[in-house]
Amino acid sequence: MSHYNLVSFTGIFILAGFAWLISTDRRNVNYRVVIWGISLQLLFGAFIFLLPAGAKVFLFVNDIVVKVLGSASAGAEFLFGRLALPPGSRNAAGEDSLGFFLAFQALPAIIFFSALMSILYYAGVMPRVIKGFSSLCSRLMRVSGAESMSVASNIFVGIESLLTIKPFLNQMTRSELCTVLTAGMATVSSNVLAIYIFSLKSEFPTIAAHLVSASILSAPASLVMSKLILPEDSVPLTLGMKVEPYYEKEASLFEAVIGGAEGGLRLIAGIVALLVAVLGLVALLDLVTGGLGSYINNFVGINVDWSLKGLLGYLFYPFTLVIGVPLPDAYQISKIIGERAVVTEIVSYQDLARAMKEGIIIDPRSPVLTAYALCGFAHVASMAIFVGGAAALAPSRKRDIASVGFRALVAATLACLMTACIAGVFYMGKSALLG
């Protein structure tokens, strides 16, 4: 154990304290949520990082996910040939991979995972798992049944999680709505995990296990941050109630596969459009700020990085230190974490993989914490998607949903950082799971 473990442990409470400082009502905080939320994260973190049984479970999960990804690439390889082969692999004809291509390897896997999740919903597996997580949150933290259901479903799915509580959205309090949006942005859906795994698995062999654990850890973290930033000021309709997940079941298994695959295709189209638009706009902005910044640097005699990534790096630098990233890597990591707020976590994970490959990151602790901090949809584009999706399902609450959107984004960002703190507390540099 090093002093960085203590820094990460302290960071949990610094982040919680920051959320309390920007709270809408600092006198009305439900500290049961805070205490249980942090306790559950620490217990879960200790199980997976310290106990041999926990490490074995998650290494098993890592192997399963990697093998499933191998199955997912079969269809892509049929369509795209060698372009679909992951780096370091070889097809049946003895041809080697041409390298990593996001469009031909990671994105097609989304279709496969979407179809697989649809099958699990049709078979009744996912509703039972979600109900189990929901019951745990509701009993321990005394939050409403609807918001605990939303938080639980967000461990496995993305914007679709809103559908599981569709009948209750119109009656939710502002605090509940904030929790719903926060949980959506603090976690990631299972179908997009493929993108992150493909981006990092050559440099980070156990990344799949880390991302699964990060998504689980971020669920209670989202409750903690949401309830600190926007505490409950009224009595929720479903407080103390067991809520069943709302789900419109397909007529047949084949219909479920078709629906899941089509949903995955729509998600790919949205991701591609978002990346093209956002990265282009960021490049344009960097041209403007870079030119002006160069003039300012020469005039004042300073050396400041005026790119959007550089400016966000300065903003997130204190938070990067707080989560326990070693000082030599802190600024590089802060730029990677900071850019996620604008250019999405997909780009940030690719930049992390590039930094690891090029040896820019010095300490092996840094990529572990960064992988956890990035595991969430906590960016501006996602906020628009979740606010728009919730408003479409509950049009009478559009104003309330829009008013809590930015607070939910801040809460989700802090939740992801808290999850990184949990990983930092238990990082010892010797666990098999942390290899």
Structure description:
There is one protein chain. By secondary structure, this protein is mostly helical. The protein has one domain. It is built from 15 helices and no strands. The protein has helices spanning about 5-20, 30-50, 50-80, 100-120, 125-140, 145-155, 175-185, 195-200, 205-230, 255-300, 310-320, 325-355, 365-375, 380-395, 400-425. Helix 2 (about 30-50) packs antiparallel against helix 9 (about 205-230).
Number of strands: 0
Measured by DSSP, the beta-strand proportion falls in under 5%
User: What Rg, in angstroms, do the CA atoms define?
Assistant: 21 Å
Q: What is the chain-wise order of helices and strands?
A: HHHHHHHHHHHHHHH
Average pLDDT confidence is 84
For the largest beta-sheet, the strand count, sense and barrel status come to: none
Broad shape: globular
Which oligomerization state do the chains in this entry correspond to?
single chain
Stretches with pLDDT under 50, minimum 5 residues: 431-435
In the residues, how many domains can be counted? 1
- Per DSSP, the total helix count is 15
Helicity, as a percent range: over 70%
Distance between the termini: 16 Å
Look at the helices and sheets and give the structural class.
mainly alpha
